[in-house]
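User: Could you check the structure of this?
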Amino acid sequence: MGERRGIIKQMVSLDVTRLKTREVRMIRRVFPLSLLFLVFLVSGIHGANLSVLREIEEVFTQIAERVKPAVVSIRAESRITRVRRKPRGEKKEAPPHPSVPRASSGSGFIIDPEGYILTNNHVVSGARRLRVTLPDDSVYRAKVIGTDPYTDLALIKIDAKRPLPTVKLGDSEKLKVGQWSIAVGDPFGITRTFTVGVVSGMGRTGVGVARYEYFIQTDAAINRGNSGGPLLNIDGEVIGINTAIPAPGSGIGFAIPINMARDVVKYLRRLGTFPRGYLGVTIQPVGNDMAHLLGLMGPSGALVGSLLKDGPAQAAGVKAGDVIVSINGKKVDDTAHLQRLVGWTPPGEAVSLDVIRYGQRKRLSVTLTKLPDAPSRGKKLTPAVQNEKEESGAYGMNIETLTVELMKKNRLTTPEGVFVSDVESGSRAFRDGLRAGMVIREFTYRAPGNRTAPVRVKIGSLDEFEGVLRKIPAGSNVLARMGRGTIQGERTFFMVLRSIRAK
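Assistant: Sure, the predicted structure tokens are below.
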């Protein structure tokens, strides 16, 4: 097989170079197998090319024959209850509709001869009954061994009373963009469908499927029903678990790297869950403007917003406005990277955090706790005094002193700062992202081109707010520490205000 792959690579590299740039771009838009076919036709060496095409064909057929016996179909059965709307004018609530059955389907693959199957959590979540169909059409009841919603992984098991064929797990760390990728699964219920493409990207985040994302992107056709099926390399090894698509037919699919899944499965099999470390902070990305205002060399790390009261980060001395730049000596690239580093550290373990606190680097030791199942609720309110109001003028927002009444109404817990009561639509304040209900608690600024340490000023009253505005040089960006109430309690976050001191 290695010899065949070498022949394929050699033929592609020799023939592509003969094409003009425009021709290459046009061909690359075609499905990868069609790309090879067109290249060979253009070259004009038909006899040799047909031989190579047959070699390619044999590689893929061998992979299909070897892997398909270990790919299964999963049917999840549940019941849903629909709520009747209350008729207009009726005081009593309408009785609910009887629950109705609902079924969904997905894919999975056998990783152990004893019947352990890896799939996506969203395939089995909420199911009252799981049925697994093997390639020989035998059907088995399956039980859930463990789930991890944070990575969208699940481990289930069937009892087949015989050893079952398994897939071979590869190494997703060795993947490179441009390598072959093969997706196997049951799209739209069409069992054990085999599609071929390439690895289009690595380390994709922000997809919105799971809390911990680091997806492989592929253009191998993935559709509804493919979820939980394997993504293979040219050696027929599993490199990922097919998980998500932006939309059917989009040509973009995402798969969980098998190395990430391998770590999770060990715990799912033993404990039924994956215990994760927890810092007790909310974090946000660091952009270029924010990096400058905080005295950073560039836009990396994770900016700390709120801290859980008496949580591990607060107990260790972490403060709002700190930028976490490394953990246990590993550089933190962004918020998703920090979540993975913390989430893959066992609870109870002490870690070393390097933070930048307004231009000064500090090292803190934090003992992680277990990631809670639900966010903590807000604490009791503390009183504030004064009741003043002032118009902010051309910037386009109204501010007033934060009172007890405003705190209660807006689920706020800290009395310091000034309250944004109104923002004019389309104004400079609106364009900066300010909205009614927010609280401004602190400004950090630097003069344009100023390489000195950032100036940090807390805001406790309207007078202080106006005084700080007069000191900020015209044309300077301002980093504002903000607060806003949520149903889980008050949240602290940061915003860059670009227009508050417009030139």
